[in-house]
Write a sequence for this structure.
């Protein structure tokens, strides 16, 4: 009964300890994500990387998600909570009580009652602060400022990446149009089966051709040729 009461008193402290760890994991994850994003942006100034800002956001999201998952995997045990409670002046009372769990001797019972009184008289939960590490906050802010600054530095690689982005957007729009034409042809009752298959093959070839094109001018010419037919 006393063992259960000790754990019941430790439970809210255990939950608060988890949230303290969660805050730390989140901010350290943000720091790792910010550093990774900065590195990615620096690389993108020399090597063309399309949709760089989307990749930066994805990197941050992955790091943040991993931080939350790791915090759940490292959910504090009762022993972790006991050690924390003892660090606030309970002088190993709590951890000793957990070690004496299931012990029914008179000395063990006295020790456990003393632990219960100590936990009730000391508001351990309020002493656990959820404030993230100040140094980590400053490092995150500094890294983010650097990331934004680097992101606005124009280079040849950056310009090539932007051109690729525009090409990809044009290709996707045209591929959607071709897909729509393919659907319309299937429903067309005036064409024969052979005619439908022939047109469909040509449209599939065109899709592949668009995918392989790298220059905006080439894409525009091919599209113009298609609609001129």
């Amino acid at each position: 009964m006393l063992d259960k009461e000790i754990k019941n008193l430790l439970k809210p402290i255990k939950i608060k300890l988890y949230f303290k760890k969660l805050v730390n994991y989140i901010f350290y994850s943000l720091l790792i994500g910010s550093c990774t994003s900065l590195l990615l942006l620096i690389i993108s100034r020399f090597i063309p990387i399309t949709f760089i800002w989307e990749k930066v956001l994805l990197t941050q999201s992955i790091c943040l998600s991993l931080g939350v998952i790791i915090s759940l995997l490292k959910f504090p045990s009762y022993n972790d909570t006991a050690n924390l409670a003892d660090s606030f002046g309970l002088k190993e009372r709590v951890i000793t009580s957990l070690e004496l769990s299931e012990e029914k001797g008179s000395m063990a019972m006295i020790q456990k009652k003393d632990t219960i009184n100590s936990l009730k008289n000391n508001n351990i939960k309020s002493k656990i602060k959820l404030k993230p590490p100040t140094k980590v906050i400053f490092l995150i802010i500094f890294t983010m400022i650097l990331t934004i600054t680097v992101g606005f530095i124009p280079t040849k690689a950056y310009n090539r990446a932007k051109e690729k982005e525009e090409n990809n957007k044009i290709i996707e729009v045209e591929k959607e149009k071709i897909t729509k034409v393919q659907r319309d042809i299937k429903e067309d009752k005036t064409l024969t089966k052979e005619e439908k298959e022939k047109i469909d093959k040509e449209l599939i070839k065109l899709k592949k051709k668009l995918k392989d094109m790298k220059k905006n001018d080439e894409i525009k010419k091919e599209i113009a040729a298609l609609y001129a037919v």
The radius of gyration is 32 Å. DSSP finds ten helices and no strands in the chain.
